[in-house]
Structure formats: C-alpha cells, structure tokens
Q: What sequence folds into this?
C-alpha cells in the first residue's frame, strides 16, 4: 500500500453503537452497565465462595477461581470504556489506549482458552486416573500450569502488540467496533500488513485450534471411561463433575465460531461487532450462572457465604 499519506496517529474512533438513534443510547448504556455489574459480582461470588469453603480447595476449583478472575479482567478491558463513550457521546480512544486495550484483550481471551484446556485436563485425570489424581494434580503442578498459561498469554499479546506498533496508519481511523480488535486495527494501517496477517493466522491455529484439540481428546477419553462404569449412578456422578465445564467450553467456542463466521460470510462490520459482544460480554456473564446452577458444591458454598453475610449484617450495623 502507499505510505506517502501515512501519519503518526494520536487517536482512533470506535464507532460501536454510535449509529443508533440517540434515544436508544440510554437503554444501551443501562443494558451493558447491568451486564457488567452482573459479570463482576457473579464471578466475585464464585471466587469468594471457593476461598471461604475449605471443601473447595481442590485443583478443579482452584482453576475455576482463576477463570472467574480472568473473566472479570476480560470484561473490564472493554465494557467500562464503552460505557464512558456512550455516556459522553464520544468515540475517541487514544493510540496508546487502543494498543493497551488490544494487548489486554489478547491476554485475557488467550488465558480463557488456556484455562479451559487446563480444566479439561484436570477432569481427564480425575475421571480416567482417580487413584492417582491428587498425586498428578499436586499443588506444584497446578501452580506451574497456571504460570504456563500466563507466560504463553503474555508472550502472545506482546508479539501482536509489537507487530502493530511497527505499522503506519492513514487518516481514516474509524474502527467499526466498540473496542480495539486486533484484525480491525491491523487492516486500518497504510503499511504492509502481510507479516501481521501471517502471525495472526499462525497463532490462531496454535493457540485456539491446539487447545480445542486437547479439550476434545480429553473428553473422548472421559466418555470412554464413563461408558466403562457399570452403574448408572456412577456414570451420572462422573459426568456431573465435568458438565459445567463442558457447557462453558461449548458456549465459548460456539461464540468464537459465530464471530468468525459472521466476519467471513457477511461484509457488514456492524454484524461482526454485535457477534463479538457474545464472547466479550455475554459469555463471562453466563459462566457464574452455569457453575452455580449445575454444581452442587458451588451452590452449597454460595449458600454458606451469603448466609454468613446476612447473619453478620445486623451484628455489625450500629444500633
């Protein structure tokens, strides 16, 4: 592409929902504020329930608490800025702010994928090798798995961010999204983006398809082990331990697939932006409901946590 008209940019414009009628903007603001608060408080409750209840101090719930923390961070990367833009009727995000938002989006979306893969491995060990579960999933290994997730996520985010920093941008800096999505930012550059595109495709294959293959392999072994159990009650108990995780994995990957298909099939960027809302806002909001409704241990811990808060309230309040 021609580079003669490029310039050192200072800001981007996030179009998002700016084309909607002004009277609808307060409704959109209220909707996303509500969803954000539900996401934050829902995931915080899951974390607090796991911390408070000693029965949940196991590898499975250790990984779940990390997933809840990442979901809070993931949503907080995009929604607060979107709410500010709606409230102030401004579309502007600074160049530094855009790169920073993109970095953390890549980091936390990657961490979501890696943690779901680690949780699938945890369920595989628990069901296929129950006698050696606590030996294999010891505290040191669990810590190393979380550390590996963070290291890979950080390196991937840094790689894409540095590759974007080398690009030059033209004057048309309107991004048809409510956040700085990597692909959209890259294709607004005036300079050659071949290297960026290649790295995006390669890392997508390695860091999305690779973990998905691991998850599918784990569940193929889990299904084989469950089928070998003779009693119906034993089969139900084994399957119920991974039902919540399977629901979250299905929701996450189905929404990602929906975003990919919407961008591939239609050339309407608005449709793609709307589809992106599913995995950036809706999925983190639904995860606490899936785990609390389908998991007896979490429901019991939440009742204990909420009950202790209720009983403590009148005692601590001033007379």
A:
């Amino acid at each position: 592409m021609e580079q003669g008209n490029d310039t050192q940019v200072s800001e981007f414009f996030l179009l998002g929902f700016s084309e909607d009628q002004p009277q609808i903007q307060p409704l959109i603001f209220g909707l996303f504020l509500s969803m954000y608060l539900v996401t934050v408080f829902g995931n915080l409750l899951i974390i607090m329930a796991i911390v408070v209840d000693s029965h949940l101090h196991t590898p499975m719930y250790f990984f779940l608490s990390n997933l809840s923390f990442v979901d809070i961070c993931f949503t907080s990367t995009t929604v607060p800025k979107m709410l500010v833009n709606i409230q102030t009727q401004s579309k502007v995000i600074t160049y530094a702010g855009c790169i920073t938002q993109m970095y953390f989006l890549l980091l936390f979306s990657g961490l979501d994928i890696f943690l779901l893969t680690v949780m699938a491995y945890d369920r595989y060990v628990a069901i296929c090798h129950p006698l050696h579960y606590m030996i294999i999933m010891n505290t040191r290994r669990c810590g190393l798995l979380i550390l590996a997730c963070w290291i890979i996520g950080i390196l991937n985010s840094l790689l894409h961010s540095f590759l974007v920093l080398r690009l030059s941008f033209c004057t048309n800096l309107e991004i048809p999204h409510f956040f700085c999505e990597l692909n959209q930012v890259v294709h607004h550059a005036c300079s050659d983006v071949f290297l960026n595109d290649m790295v995006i495709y390669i890392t997508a294959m390695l860091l999305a398809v690779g973990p998905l293959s691991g998850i599918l392999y784990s569940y193929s072994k889990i299904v084989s082990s469950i089928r070998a159990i003779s009693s119906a009650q034993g089969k139900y108990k084994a399957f119920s331990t991974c039902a919540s995780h399977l629901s979250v994995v299905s929701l996450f990957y189905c929404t990602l697939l929906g975003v990919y298909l919407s961008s591939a099939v239609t050339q309407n960027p608005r449709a793609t932006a709307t589809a992106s809302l599913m995995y950036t806002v809706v999925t983190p909001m639904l995860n606490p409901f899936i785990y609390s409704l389908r998991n007896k241990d979490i429901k019991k811990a939440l009742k204990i946590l909420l009950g202790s808060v209720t009983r403590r309230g009148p005692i601590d309040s001033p007379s």
Observations:
- The chain has a mean pLDDT of 86.
- The first strand starts at residue 11 and ends at 14.
